[in-house]
């Protein structure tokens, strides 16, 4: 909790107080100026727009990335556990190992590839990148969750005449909410907070909020406004927190209760 | 309605051989009951008929067409799983309707069908519950409903009534019988309940360790068991096995049994040639508990009845009958006698046995003789 | 319409205001400015982005690049020529040769300078100095040592310092200049002469570094430079050795130069360590973009921009002949010294700020300097390691 | 299930992922491996120069430090996170009313980018401004907490911050799995006389074993890729005592224009990970085939 | 060994009332069998005794101590779950040994115990398997083994044998009986198998919709059922209920039944005062199938036997007996007769009924009269 406390209290201090007082003391009087300033007045590059426009860039990028990667991960997990084919485990291992590729390594070849695909500097390109490097994780989550779901359920549905996708949508997805929450939390956080890809594969005005935040916070030879920095950081983190609170509700128990005996 | 042919079907898990070459041929509309001890491979066989498990070797045909590689959903089979396998996320009504939904039946059609099945299974009041809110028997009924609601080529039932009370079970048994008579669907049915087996089956297959021991109509299985295993497996309490020797005395052939009370010869009415061949050799005499009765003094015994006296060790009342344990040929044998005829424990009483319903087995091969 | 996408890392505070001035100017002249700001790590992030943009075949029109990197990019054939504007605007005249040579590749202008930062500044708190009877910043390193000892005895941290490699290196290169002079500096860090790097002179530098280590408080590792500046401001430390951007921090706190803080060149034997920010112009397709580049280049070197920009940023103009009335005392001193050192040849590119050598060599030097500063390595070892590392990185 | 159509559908479903992974992971790894054998400096070039980059790489003292740090950091980080995440999840699993709040509190560190929390952490851990000063002000003048500025311990401060950031997610992961465990089994265990800790330890946790795979992979991934953390918290310092391979690689490839050495270090990093993770994956996945 | 007292125990899920005030008192070493239709609350009651479910109202005492708030693990109870609830991560041996491990039994001790139980359950060869690799019946045996290996104060068995074949079930039944005799542990046992209930129980509790209908020893439940529900529930096939009227003719009291064959009076031997009170009123005559027999011409009937003739509609051979459906008093009644005495369908035959074993019920309250 402590770091957050420090951040919140700092963000509520005035610039003058910051310079004089101890960094981790509580503010003497509350001032929300820093928040307003960070939201739509602060300089982000040459434009004094605040974080607001970049915020929406991020939303536009994050939502499809999270949905696509979670969905594909669920589908992969399902295929790899309930419809095993020879080599399924090997394949899974290969996909999994992909999660260890350092992103710094990816940067250069990815730029070239995006350039070739004509996706350089577009939101679509960024979505592609995030989906690709999220897949290993979402697949991992779902695969490991689905291994604990009784095969008999799939068998019963097959006998009932449900096809591959019908079983997936009607049986498996409805009982996957906890892991879906995990996957969404992970993907959302990773993508929302990503800086490296966002900076490298977006251009100027379409940059995600982290790039803006970084621009706002990071200065080499300029003057630091810690209160604004902290406020901006908290603003940038708010959507993630909202996702946690909303998604957390679906951490429910007993989704497979009563289905089989054994 | 379909014929079902199972040819030399084998199944191995790793190096555990579970089915060792099953051959069964069902004509259209047959009702096959699979009987066998726990773990003998009944569920495995059903799974393979349904296409839910790979066949290690052999082939399965429906209506003459090999379906080894046909997808389960295209085999048009309905199945009740031993483990129920209910969809935990759906309520009872949807669990039952799901198969219809997948087959494109419209909503009103499904509702009518679900209502009908629910009434049949006496669970109209449970339609809105999720499986987790049901009792064991109720879950089993949902599993049953899921199969019954459809009209498939073949029904597979894996112990569908094991968790129901006697009354409901009788009702359900009757319903299944009616269903079978009405639709004529081919049915494969696993049960441990012998009454179910005897009353429902057109033929019974008795399995042991992945091998079919006998495949015949119920009465034949009961009265002419192929071997000691089948004889012992069918009937409760089980058939009594008593070591004996085939003897030929004067013009009569009989079996001599020796016990604490000395030895006595029980005559064999109408012995077959095979039995006559065994004269002088050891055999195992098989006697069903209900063929042993208390001798009523002064009654005239028909020729196929033999009389003997034995000491009673224990009596066990079960309501309708009293199980009476008596020493016969050096073994403990059980007689099922009406409570009013029941002797008291310790008493030496006289009994009769209906030798026309007795069986003889070869002690080595355990196969029935004659 | 001339348009230009500009990649830079001036994203906040005075820097951003300065950059905004350029944008305003550019747009006033009919251009369309497409901002592409990537802050972080003193431009590292921006360089990373630049690389991926170039590889993706989509480079920005102008990018903030400095020092030898300009030559590197030019060698890859990524930069376009500015000779037309240069001729029209007479750049060869208005730019000091030490600066213009950095901007040229094969004699052609490929980049334009924005400003000159002086690195070797002492920032001092006069009230604190007064406590030990000093009135001005030391002029030699010996003086510094003597003063520091006094301060230390008085319970004051003599030098406020942030323990980040580039800050360590800033002190280091200042000490090199101060102890061994500009010629030595050039041999060591521009020519990368192995013997010089191993020389006794270098050992002495490390000795001095070890001393300085004794003059900083023990919580210095990882500290940001501005936190160190705060220490000077509120009197917990006496001096800081930092580039002229530190002035902004003082001014933002409402401190008055000369009264609340002193600025004085560090002891560098009348040398001058400079850091020149510049924009390189990339090969772009399309007339509008090329027109944008030309316009931008012209404006950047123009007097008006150089004046506004540098007053905002605290640095001094890179070109000559800019009116001086808007600049403060520190900046004026810097300008005078710049001119003097241009003449005397003691104007040196900063090694710590990647003006003198390629990134690889700079990094290697920083590794050794910072390792020495944060451990008990002997000076002789350090010098040897330095030479080895530079050899490895070359 | 055997049906060829079905399993081919299954393959088709996985195929896009596989194709993406093949190109964007393995393709790139091959590319990197190739580049590591070239003389690439500022931009990748493709002339082959052999193992020069590797020779140089191993001459960097900084690289040795980084690799050693990775092992120390990785081992501590993974172990502590697993233990802590698991513990928190188990505690949260006890049907407590404020579960939602607590869960969010545990998770929130993940939400904050290290770009900024790094600053707050720095203040907290810095002896002059943070905890040490605070506790001393409270009247314990001898309290010492100076890991951040201590060459020996700086890497442990990384562990603290990293654990702080990630254990919440590990908790979420475990919590999801715990929610899938059949309650009847827990009841059975009660009757067998097991205490709650024993039930978790003996039954529930072993039965959610696949989640450990997820958690370990996630954590290993985080450990290997920890980059922001170092940049924000210690900047690799004091000196480069707390450098990690990811930082080394970035430093080489992007700051020092030695892409070939950066690539070589990436390849070495992957080899290290492979040497540790592949046997683990192998045993996990092979064991998971049955039941 | 413990007494178990259940006082007015109630259970509601939301507004569904599942147990509506159960009162049962077991003395030390009793063997209570719970019988009742699917969903009547048997498992719920067991769960509450074990402490696995909260009690909405009422109290449960073991050895006189109220244990409502005692944690399950401190109640010293072993239970076989209807759904098995095996530990999926442990092999069979560890599943069985786990309870001992938790109670601090050392490894050699556990191994010996597991071996013994595995032999008892005929599953020595399965000890290394995981539950997922077992058949349904094998899983059930593991669940059983987990309870049997311990030596608790109270055993709770929830349909522990439902998935076993008849033979194994008889074996297991005997083992449980022996165990009970040896240890004298108090046992509560849920089953749908009446033979199990009759042979094992010291007392039976028959439940219906959360209410105990009768709580009495097996023979009493069978012979003197408290009401029509119990009478119909116990016994298979179920007791025949025939509307009748109590009549008093000369010095004899009897019941008149009216059917297609006209009306006839069946004498009641030794009618109780309560029956005499009913003279002239409608009652329901309850006759168990096995008390109806074929009349043997020329035999002398004991006084408590009544004779009547009826038309046979269907016959159903079950092996040991043949179920014969006959029209009696306008209703379909079932008689269980030996196969050799079985009439053919359609035939009008003469039967006898043992009136000493018949029951009379009040048609309104459905309670037994006298
Ligand atoms: N969570 C629940 N919510 C609502 N009703 C429930 C819930 N759980 C059980 N019930 C109902 O409580 C009743 C009693 O269930 P219980 O499991 O005790 O039955 P049972 O006597 O064991 O039946 P069976 O012989 O079928 O196992 C059933 O009607 C069941 O539907
Ligand atoms: N995955 C597996 N690996 C190894 N053996 C298995 C596996 N699954 C089942 N078996 C074994 O195969 C045999 C047959 O199992 P199956 O389920 O067909 O038995 P069953 O006849 O249905 O028995 P029950 O009456 O107990 O349900 C059993 O002995 C079982 O232990
Ligand atoms: Mg089975
Ligand atoms: Mg139950």
Automatic annotation (TrEMBL), chain A:
GO cellular component, one term: plasma membrane
Keyword annotations: Membrane, Transmembrane, Transmembrane helix, Transport
Membrane-protein topology: Multi-pass membrane protein
Subcellular location: Cell membrane
Chief subcellular location: membrane
Domain ABC transmembrane type-1: 55-247
GO biological process terms held by the UniProt record: transmembrane transport
Chain segments annotated as transmembrane: 54-78, 90-112, 124-146, 167-189, 195-216, 228-247
Entry similarity comment: Belongs to the binding-protein-dependent transport system permease family.
Protein's name in the database: Sugar ABC transporter permease
Organism phylogeny: Bacteria, Pseudomonadati, Pseudomonadota, Alphaproteobacteria, Rhodospirillales
From TrEMBL, chains B, E:
GO biological process: carbohydrate transport
Tagged with keyword Nucleotide-binding: yes
Keywords: ATP-binding, Nucleotide-binding, Transport
Matches recorded under InterPro entries: AAA+_ATPase (IPR003593), ABC_transporter-like_ATP-bd (IPR003439), ABC_transporter-like_CS (IPR017871), ABC_transpr_MalK-like (IPR015855), ABC_transpr_MalK/UgpC-like (IPR047641), Mo/tungstate-bd_C_term_dom (IPR008995), NA-bd_OB-fold (IPR012340), OB_MalK-like (IPR040582)
Domain (ABC transporter) ranges: 4-234
Short name of any one Pfam family annotated for the protein: ABC_tran
Record CDD domains: ABC_MalK_N (cd03301)
Entry keyword annotation includes Thylakoid: no
Gene Ontology CC terms: ATP-binding cassette (ABC) transporter complex, substrate-binding subunit-containing
Molecular function terms, GO-annotated: ABC-type transporter activity; ATP binding; ATP hydrolysis activity
Alphabetized PANTHER family for the sequence: ABC TRANSPORTER ATP-BINDING PROTEIN, MALTODEXTRIN IMPORT ATP-BINDING PROTEIN MSMX
Family named by the database record: Belongs to the ABC transporter superfamily.
Protein known as: Sugar ABC transporter ATP-binding protein
From TrEMBL, chain D:
ABC transmembrane type-1 domain boundaries: 67-282
Xref: PROSITE patterns: ABC_TM1
Transmembrane stretches, start-end: 12-34, 70-92, 104-124, 153-178, 199-224, 259-282
Family matches, as Pfam families: BPD_transp_1
Highest taxon listed in the record's lineage: Bacteria
InterPro entries per record: ABC_transporter_permease, MetI-like, MetI-like_sf
Topological category with respect to the lipid bilayer: Multi-pass membrane protein
Keyword Signal: no
Compartments where found: Cell membrane
Keyword match Ribosomal protein: no
SUPFAM superfamilies, sorted: MetI-like
Family membership noted in the UniProt record: Belongs to the binding-protein-dependent transport system permease family.
Protein name as annotated: ABC transporter permease
Source organism (scientific name): Elstera cyanobacteriorum
